[in-house]
Structure formats: C-alpha cells, structure tokens
Write a structure and sequence with these properties.
130 residues; alpha/beta; 6 strands; globular
Length: 130
C-alpha cells in the first residue's frame, strides 16, 4: 500500500488502482485538493483502510478492474452498504458495461484532472457538513 501521510483529522481520498503509474497520477491530482490521500492497489487493501477508526474516508476513487477476489464494482457496492457517506467514483478504460450502485459516479479513462478535483470538492463539502 502506498501512502501519502494525511493529517489525522483531515478527511481522505482513497485511491484504489492496480496500475502504479495511474495510481501515482491520481494521488498527485488529489493532493491538490483539501483531502489527504491514501493509495492502494486492491479492494481488500482499501477495505482495511475504510475499517480503520483513525481514518475518515470522504472519497473512494477506484478502478473497476482490480487484482484479487474483489473488483471495483464489488468495492463500490460494499462501500455504499457500509459507508453510505463516502463519495464513490469508479473509473475504467473499457466501456461502461456494468451496473453500479445508484450513488456511484462513473468516470471514463482517460479522466481529466479537473473532473477528479470536482469530485474531491464535492466529497470535501459533504465531509464538512457531516
């Protein structure tokens, strides 16, 4: 798991991407927001971060295709059930041919940094309102 060290009290963006170059790019983009950033390469690692009591995840930014038993769609479904206040954005380079949870935002790759930052802003505002 890669980690940028967020402030303890700051809400974080959780980047879940198996491609290291894309993961680092998404991390760099999100570091320009008011969110701290934690990056990992699998859904299982992401769930372990979400379950931590010392981390408040405001945004989950995940690829649909991930290594391991759980893909990005399954991760989005789990997050919607267990952490409904987390803003979920899933990305894919393939065409959107999957059913996503109602509150999940889909972003086609290659995504634009501005679009990612807009989602981070929405997540930040929601976290501050909670």
């Amino acid at each position: 798991m890669d980690r940028a060290q967020p402030e303890c009290s700051a809400p974080v963006a959780l980047v879940v991407e198996d491609d290291a170059a894309v993961r680092h790019l998404a991390t760099a983009v999100l570091e320009e927001s008011d969110l701290g950033v934690i990056a990992c390469e699998s859904a299982e690692a992401a769930l372990s971060v979400l379950e931590r009591s010392d981390v408040t995840v405001a945004l989950l930014f995940a690829d649909i295709r991930l290594p391991g038993a759980m893909d990005g769609v399954s991760l989005a479904q789990a997050v919607e059930r267990r952490w409904p206040d987390v803003r979920v954005v899933v990305t894919s380079g393939a065409s959107r041919d999957v059913r996503l949870p109602d509150q999940t935002v889909y972003m086609q790759k290659p995504w634009r940094a501005l679009d990612v930052l807009v989602q981070a802003e929405h997540a930040t505002m929601a976290a501050k309102a909670a």
